[in-house]
Amino acid sequence: MQKLPDFPWDLLAPYGDKAKKHPDGFIDLSQGTPVDATPKFIQEALSKASNSPSYPLTAGSEELRTAIKDFAIKTLGVTGEFDVLPTIGSKELIAFLPTFLQSKTVLYPAVAYPTYLVGALMASAQATPVEIDATAWPVADLAWVNSPSNPTGQVQSDEQLLAAINWARKNNSILASDECYLSFTSTGKSILALSGGNNSGLLAVHSLSKRSNLAGYRAAFLIGDSKLIDQIRQIRKHAGLMVSLPVQQAMLAALSENKHAQEQTQRYLARGVKLKRALVSAGFTIEHSEAGLYIWCTKGEDGFKTVDYFAAMGILVTPGSFYGSNNFVRIALTATDENIDKVIARINL
Ligand SMILES: Cc1ncc(COP(=O)(O)O)c(C=O)c1O
């Protein structure tokens, strides 16, 4: 395995220490970890399944598989032949996908969630950062897209995603789409809704961590090319990578209901609108930030300087360098409404 990058969060610790000294309290907007409650009916589904003496199936229960397929067809608009597979959150799958697929060359977005690169390094693959325009991508075994993006909040257009699908078809390569924030956009589409029913070489990664406030449960799933999913499932069977049965029941409940996901979308949207307004009036430039959990913004200076500016106000944000862009910061909307209002008051002081 190639050497993995140092875990960058240690670099943030001194700013966290500074922010924690603020007399009116510390507000953490650095991590995209949900703070709104797990809906009661999902909690109940988990506890009702707590008597669970037998091993679960790696493939997931028949009911869960059907629920994921229904979600794919009805909510995402997937057509054609495809398979599904529950995973223990989506991060493990992203980190192991190049290993499962034995990819030797991996493309990943130049400004991105770090695990795409980590996964390529874990598989001893050659990793190449690329811009969004897939017509300029080099040949590779596997490419990642992520829309809405962490950290930028950019929603890729149908044309951009279709270009990525065409790249995969032309090169006989695999396109993996991290769609774990897709429930937060009404304009963005799954690559599987754009494939015209030919899902070969295509994989879409979904997560319930943010959609349903289930990050602590570790609940996600993969949809797409049946042959590839079978290959991944076989390895996962050998490795014992299975989602616990109580969590499978919770996933079933979460997928059977969309109202809670729409309410959560509205919560993030409302927080985003008011925080963006405050940042603009404080002189920030905001890029993208169309959907998802993050505001991607700059004061036109090194991101760590901006992190320090926030730390002096008792607020912790993340430097863009953690994601491949030095002059930006990423601000997470995963704080209570009360704390977002406090942040706005401190910025506008
Ligand atoms: C773009 C992206 N993909 C995947 C994940 C992993 O989420 P989880 O493992 O909770 O499904 C995250 C987590 O923040 C993320 O930002």
Write the layout of secondary structure elements.
Blueprint: H1 13-20, E1 27-28, H2 40-48, H3 62-76, E2 83-87, H4 91-101, E3 105-109, H5 115-122, E4 126-130, E5 142-146, H6 158-171, E6 174-178, E7 202-207, H7 208-211, E8 220-224, H8 226-239, H9 245-255, H10 259-281, E9 285-287, E10 294-298, H11 303-311, E11 315-316, E12 318-319, E13 329-332, H12 337-347
Parallel strand pairs: 1-11, 3-4, 3-5, 5-6, 6-7
Antiparallel strand pairs: 2-8, 7-8, 9-10, 10-13, 12-13
The chain binds pyridoxal-5'-phosphate.
In the CATH hierarchy, the architecture of the largest domain is: 3-Layer(aba) Sandwich
**Uncertain spans:** none
Distance between the termini: 49 Å
CATH topology of the largest domain: Aspartate Aminotransferase, domain 2
What share of residues are in beta strands? Answer: 15-25%
How many helices?
12
Radius of gyration: 20 Å
Q: Any idea of the CATH class of the largest domain?
A: Alpha Beta
Could you walk me through the main structural features you see in this protein, from its secondary elements to its overall organization?
By secondary structure, the protein is an alpha/beta fold. It has two domains: about 10-40 and about 260-345, Aspartate Aminotransferase, domain 1 (Alpha-Beta Complex), CATH 3.90.1150.10; about 40-255, Aspartate Aminotransferase, domain 2, CATH 3.40.640.10. It is about 40% helix and about 15% strand. The chain has twelve helices and 13 strands. The strands form three sheets. It has a seven-stranded mixed β-sheet, sandwiched between helices. A four-stranded antiparallel β-sheet has the order 9-10-13-12, covered by helices on one side. Strands 1-11 form a two-stranded parallel ribbon. α2 (about 40-50) packs antiparallel against α9 and α3 (about 60-75) packs parallel to α9. The chain binds pyridoxal-5'-phosphate. The site of pyridoxal-5'-phosphate has 14 residues, from α4.
